# Entry
Amino acid sequence: MDRGEVVESLRGQTINVTNLDEPFQDWPSEINPEIDRLRRDVDEWLQRTMSHSGSLELLKISGFALFGATWWPRAEYHRLKIATYLAIWLFTWDDEIDSAAGSLHDDFETAQRFRTETLDYVQLCLGPPSSQDSRAIKPSNQIICNFKEIGESIRDAYSIGASPKPLLEHADRDLSTEQSRRVFKEMTTFMQMSEKEQRLRLSGTLPSIKEFWKYRLGSSAVAVCLSVNEYVVANDPGLFLIAKLTTFVRYAWTHMDLPKSIMDHPDMSKLWDQTNIIISTVNDVLSLKKEIARGAIDSLIPLLYAKTGDVQAAVDELTIFLIKTIKSFEETAQKFPAQVLASDAKSLQALQNFIDGCRYYCTGNLRWR
# Structure
């Protein structure tokens, strides 16, 4: 079947989806106590940054505050707010290309310039302040401009001297170099895989499942969110003191500052991929009706259906795959800390916090959906 045949064949079909809460029943799920404050700030930020968009009212009712409050339930407020803005920015940026209503949906050449200009500006915002900083440059697209507050907040948190009395002995390294570069690396991958996804869609070709996963792990932007997992946790004594002086103390992590040896470990890469796969699979199952309504089939169920001709079988196969991936995540989550304990015991709690952060991403995503 070609793309049009898959869409028309799926319309009107009925599927039964297993209760997806059950596979996650042993994973933590919380809501940040600052959610009401976040709702007000998200609404103001959308009004300020997206007033040019015909999708403004739809964005306002999308529940982004719930998204942020469940993905980062233990974050100090300012970092919770910035991480939530980042998530909204990723959604709005991607919709310019991926959504049929987006201005660049069918315009590959202009989309390429959009990607290039975005990466240049992201790098500028994340990099050290210079004579030609983000205040001196005005991108051509308002959505690109909206990254300024996000990038500069992340940059400032990761700058040398931002935390003069680090909680961990290894925290006095050049955070700006290591962690900001990690954010930029994942943003670059996101843009590259967005290109591959759009190129494939415009060609009219249906990818194989293997081809799909090659670009989906980047185009999903989950890895971009994972790259700020450390940022959203109160990482310096000043922020933690604020947490202690409020009811937030029962929620706050004390730190999540991991050395490069752990962040570059093969098991850390596994955790990132497994988290990404879990979130992407849940999204594809729960968004099927909406995707088919807008004629989009670049997701797992339509691709499996194109191969088998049985949509319920595709849903059942994905459910089994999801459960297996959750089990694989737990196996990695048990093995990895045991290895770290033997070589770097002082980083163990930070690693456990990071792993719990991945779990919150998954349960928060399901709760938001």
